[in-house]
Amino acid sequence: MNRVQRAIISVSDKTGIVELAKSLSDAGIEILSTGGTSKVLKENNIPVIEVSEFTGFPEIMDGRVKTLQPKIHGGILAVRENEEHVNQMATHQIEPIDLLIINLYPFEETINKPDVTFEEAIENIDIGGPAMLRSAGKNHKYVGVIVNPKHYERLINELKENDNTLSQDFKRELAIEVFETTSKYDGMIADYLKKQSGCTELRDQISLGLEKVISCRYGENPHQEGALYELKQATEPGIAAAKQLHGKELSYNNILDVSAAFSMARDFEEPTVVIIKHGNPCGLSSDDNIETALLNAWSGDPMSAYGSVIGINRVITKSLAEKIGNKTFLAEQVIPKFKEETGDDVIVLAAFVEAIIAPGYEPEALEILQKKKNLRIMEQPLFNPKGIEDSLQFRSVPGGILVQKADFGKITENDLSVPTKEQPTDEQLQSLLFAEKVAKHVKSNAIVLVKGKTLVGAGAGQMSRFDSCKIAAEKAGKRAVGAVLASDAMFPSRDGLDAAVETGAVAIIQPGGSIRDDDVVEAANEHKVPMLFTGMRHFLH
Predict the structure, then answer these.
(1) φ and ψ of 223, to 5 deg
(2) Other Cβ atoms within 10 Å of 59 Cβ, number
(3) Please, what are the averages of pLDDT over each run of 10 residues along the chain (541 residues)?
(4) DSSP secondary-structure letter at 94?
(5) What is the CATH number of the domain that holds 340?
(6) One domain, residues 445 and 316
(7) What gap in Å lies between CA 228 and CA 216, rounded to an integer?
(8) Interhelix angle 128-138/168-196, nearest 10 degrees
(9) Both 163 and 58 in a single domain?
(10) What is the pTM for the complete model shown?
(11) How many Cβ atoms sit within 10 Å of the Cβ of residue 369?
C-alpha cells in the first residue's frame, strides 16, 4: 500500500474541513487547494499550496478552468507500478496525488432557491470536481477519495493507525460512493435542463438520483431488506421528505400505507379523513366539519380500522386529536353509529392507529397525540405543491422499471355524459363525483359504495368486477341501499351492471368504453337506475 504524501482539498461544504486539514498537515501530508477552500485553510494557519502554483498555470475563465490540467489528473491517474507511467511522470514533472477531499458545487441547493436564475444554475454545474472524483475513483487502488464529510473521522483514524496508508477495502468503498454521487449529480442537472426546456415526455433515458433517507428494519416481510430513498429530482418533497414528529421507526409497510393515505387525502378539496389498511381505504369521508369526517370515516369499517394509517388534509386541532385512537370515542360514537346504520354487531380489538399524516398539528394536538407511544406522527406541510401534475411514478419489475405519469386526472360535471333515461338528482351527482374520486385510489378491480360523501363499502383487488360488487355490498350492509356506486373501469357486459344494482345502489358512475356499452345502458334502463360515463379509467394495479 502506498503512503499518502499529497492531498487535494477543494470543498463547497466546509463542514469539518479545518480539523481534517490540520490532522493531515500534522501527519506530514502536503495539501493542495483552490479558491475559497485555500483561503479558509490559510486563515486557520494550515500550510497549503495553491493549485495554480503547483501546476504553474493560473485559474482562468472565472475559475471554470483550474484543476483540468495534466499535472493534476496525471498525478491522480498514474499507475504507480507501471514503469512507463512513472517515467512519463518524471519527464513531465508530475507529482503523485494520493488523496482527494472534494465535494461539488451546490447545484441542488442552488436550483431550489426560489429566485434562482438559469445563469446562476449553470454556473453551479461543477466540472473540475466530478472530473477529479472520477479520476480518483478509477484509480482507487492508489488514491483515496472522500466526497462526504461523514467519512472524515474514519479517514483520520485509518491514516493514524496505518502509518499514513489507507486499506484497499476503504478506498473501494469510497470509490463506489464517488460514482454514486456523480451519477446523482448528473441526473439532477439533466432533469433541471429538461424542465427548463419544457420537456414533459418520457425520454429514452432517465437518470435517477436516489438518496437513502430511512433504513427499514426489513421490507414487506422480515426476510427482505428494505429502505426508503428520496428521489432528488422529484417534482415534490412528498413522503420521503415528510417529518416524523413522534413514534417508532416507520416500517416498509407503514411507508406504503402512509403514502396511500397522503395521496388520497390530498386529492380532496373539502376537509377529508382517509383511513388506510393494506393500501386501500377502509374509511373515507369529506365534510365541512373535519371531526364529523373522522367519525364518518371511522364508522365506515371500524373492524378493519384497527391498526390502520390515517391521512387528514387539514391541520389537526386539539379537539380532533382527542378523538384519534381514543377508545371512548370508538365505543361511544363510532361503533354505535356503525350498528345503527348497518344493523350489524362489530368486534373491534382496540382504537389502535399505526400512523397519521397531516399538513400540520396545533401544539396542544401534538402534545395529546405524542402520549400514544406507538403512534407514528408524520407531517408534510406541502400536501399539494405546484407542479405535481408532472410527477412520474416508478415501479420495479424483474430486469427493469416501469415509468408512467402519475394519475392526477380529474373529472368535473362538464366531463360527464348520461346515456340512460334516468337522470341523477343534484345530490346523487355530487355523491357520484365523490365516489369516482374514491375509486381512483382503490386497487383494481375497484367498486365503491358511497352515501353523501362517505365511503360505506369497497371491493378492492378482485379478479372480477362482479366479486368486487359483492364484497362492497357486504361491507356496506344495509347502507348499500340507496347508495351510489363507482367503478374504476368499464363494465364489460351487463352482468357487472346487474351485480352493481343488486348491491342496492341507486345511481352508478363508470368510465364507459365497452363494446357492449349499449347492453349495459339497456340494463341500467331496465333497472331504472341513472348511469354516468366519465370517459376516464382509473386502474390501480
Answers:
(1) -85, 5
(2) 17
(3) 86 89 89 87 89 80 80 88 88 90 89 89 89 92 92 90 90 92 88 82 77 91 93 85 94 95 95 96 96 96 94 97 95 93 87 96 97 95 86 88 89 94 96 96 94 95 90 92 94 88 94 92 94 93 88
(4) P
(5) 3.40.140.20
(6) no
(7) 7
(8) 150
(9) yes
(10) 0.82
(11) 24
d(CA 94, CA 76): 10
Domain that holds residue 110: 6-196
Which of the residues 138, 232, 337, 339 is marked catalytic? 138
Q: For the beta carbon of residue 399, count every other beta carbon within 10 angstroms.
A: 5
167: number of Cβ within 10 Å = 13
How many other CB atoms sit within 10 Å of the CB of residue 366?
A: 17
Report the distance separating Cα 110 and Cα 115, nearest Å.
9
Whether 278 is catalytic: yes
**Strand pairing class (6-10; 30-33):** parallel
CA distance 269 to 313: 8
Q: Taking the alpha carbons of 516, 519, 522, 524 in that order, is the dihedral positive or negative? A: negative
In contact, 312 and 354? CB cutoff 8 Å: no
Shared domain for 292 and 366, answered yes or no, is: yes
**CA separation for the pair 262, 275 (Å, rounded):** 10
**Number of continuous H segments (helices) and E segments (strands) in the chain:** 20, 20
DSSP for residue 84:
H
Sign of CA dihedral 423, 426, 427, 431: positive
- Asked, for residue 235, whether it belongs to a domain, the answer is no
Catalytic residue among 22, 194, 232, 278: 278
Q: Are 460 and 280 in contact (CB under 8 A)?
A: yes
The total of other beta-carbon atoms located within 10 Å of residue 224's CB is 10
Task: Sort residue 444 into left (φ over 0), alpha (ψ -120 to 50) or beta.
Answer: beta
Kindly report whether the peptide bond that precedes residue 374 is cis, defined as omega within 30 degrees of 0: no
Instruction: Out of 353, 379, 405, pick the residue that ends a domain.
Output: 379
416 alpha-carbon distance from chain centroid: 33
138 an active-site residue?
Answer: yes
| Cα three-residue angle 134-136-140, rounded to 5 degrees | 120
From 159, 181, 196, the end of a domain falls on 196
CA–CA distance, 34 with 57 (Å, rounded to integer)? 13
